[in-house]
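Pipeline run #58 for the internal structure catalog. This entry was flagged by the ingest filter as a single-chain record with no existing model, so it goes straight to prediction. Upstream metadata was stripped on purpose; only the residue string is passed forward. Reviewer on rotation: M.T. Logging verbosity set to normal.
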Amino acid sequence: MPCPAGSVPWSHDCGRTERRRHAVTSALLKCPHCGATNRIPAAASGHPRCGKCRRDLPWIADAGDADFSAVAEHSPVPALVDFWAAWCGPCRMVSPVLEKLAQERAGKIKLVKVDVDQSPGLSRRFDVQAIPTLLVIKDGKVVARQAGAPPAAALRSWLDNALATRSEGSRQ
């Protein structure tokens, strides 16, 4: 039912349902150095630091079709994107390794986890044919891609090489 001119109904929508932008989420993380609990947003202009000891914190965020651009492509640090699924055995094996890499490189990378079952648009956009599929995105561009679950040493080497690679269009 349309609302009369000049009045605002309690629902504030005047009978119209508009699609609203999904809010970017945040998570609580205990600092590995001092134990303080910190709220870590999925998207921010800097990188997370502990509010108590001021040390860099690992940045691990979930993203989907609605917020991937804000979380991964506009990240101020390179994003390591993990396309995974809950039912995938190799995904469950590589996940702890990725989390350890994010902890080791706190302040230098952001681990972005994308559930392919919940985000089919991203799977199509990045042509994900197998999972896990890993991407490194720097300055909004994919600079490296890896399909499968390699051993930890190979994954560490791949990530180091990808981070050393200059993204096209970047200076210096």
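catalog note: Residues 84 and 132 are 5 Å apart (CA to CA).
catalog note: Confidence is low (pLDDT under 50) at residues 1-22, 167-172.
status: ready for reviewer M.T.
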